[in-house]
């Protein structure tokens, strides 16, 4: 089980409520700040996720923790007929709905308020499920992953994109300086919510990655689990299927 890092140290709310509140707070600035803090590389990583899903020829896709919908929008380039974005932050979904309407994709993509740990869909409903930078925010990682396995169709494809920690010198040291000092400072200067970016970097530093996350996926019941580190290991794409 991942360590429980929460956004607000003095809040009585549980992690899920705090996470929803935090993303509501930063929803309007999220897209802009995201590009800055990742130097725009997140766009390239999401494209790789789309390529994996496209190969699976999925027709119905669930994008969990969809946020402002960037991955859901990119997934519209595949042969999917229906894409559903699920998130617990209505603020993030609202920004996403506007982008989807502007791109005239509202007939293909639906943004739904809902929790990954209690997914409001039947068993075996989706050909592919994606989560980009979402799993580390789950209150209960194992419960969220078990729910994903439940709603994924047999032979379906599951893809996670998540931050990870570089293990090789000098990237390891560079990443430490960036996540401990630079990222929280950018957050404090540019964000409406001063603690949000400290939470995002702290949660990234303790979240399981690589073989540890592969093993959690296997324990939950996923098959053909594989991790594909990106950009010196600062992010990793995980692929898995349901037998
Ligand atoms: C860092 S954002 C990622 C958004 C988007 N996937 C992207 O790639 O930009 C994380 C999102 O996870 C959502 N989230 C966190 N816990 C969740 C849960 N239990 N169920 C659904 N969404 C959740 C948050 O509300 C937030 O919008």
TrEMBL record:
TM helices/strands, residue ranges: none
Known function: Methyltransferase required for the conversion of demethylmenaquinol (DMKH2) to menaquinol (MKH2).
Keyword S-adenosyl-L-methionine part of the UniProt annotation: yes
PANTHER family, sorted: 2-METHOXY-6-POLYPRENYL-1,4-BENZOQUINOL METHYLASE, MITOCHONDRIAL (PTHR43591:SF24), METHYLTRANSFERASE (PTHR43591)
GO biological process: menaquinone biosynthetic process; methylation
Keywords attached to this entry: Menaquinone biosynthesis, Methyltransferase, S-adenosyl-L-methionine, Transferase
InterPro entries listed in its UniProt record: SAM-dependent_MTases_sf, UbiE/COQ5_MeTrFase, UbiE/COQ5_MeTrFase_CS
CDD domains assigned to the protein according to its UniProt record, in alphabetical order: AdoMet_MTases (cd02440)
Protein name, UniProt field: Demethylmenaquinone methyltransferase
EC number assigned by the record: 2.1.1.163
Segment forming the signal sequence: none
Entries under Pfam families matching the protein: Ubie_methyltran
Chain positions recorded as S-adenosyl-L-methionine binding sites: 68, 87, 115-116
Similarity comment: family membership: Belongs to the class I-like SAM-binding methyltransferase superfamily. MenG/UbiE family.
Pathway: Quinol/quinone metabolism; menaquinone biosynthesis; menaquinol from 1,4-dihydroxy-2-naphthoate: step 2/2
Record organism: Gelidibacter sediminis
Catalytic activity: a 2-demethylmenaquinol + S-adenosyl-L-methionine = a menaquinol + S-adenosyl-L-homocysteine + H(+)
MF terms in GO: demethylmenaquinone methyltransferase activity
Keyword S-adenosyl-L-methionine found: yes
PROSITE patterns on file: SAM_MT_UBIE, UBIE_1
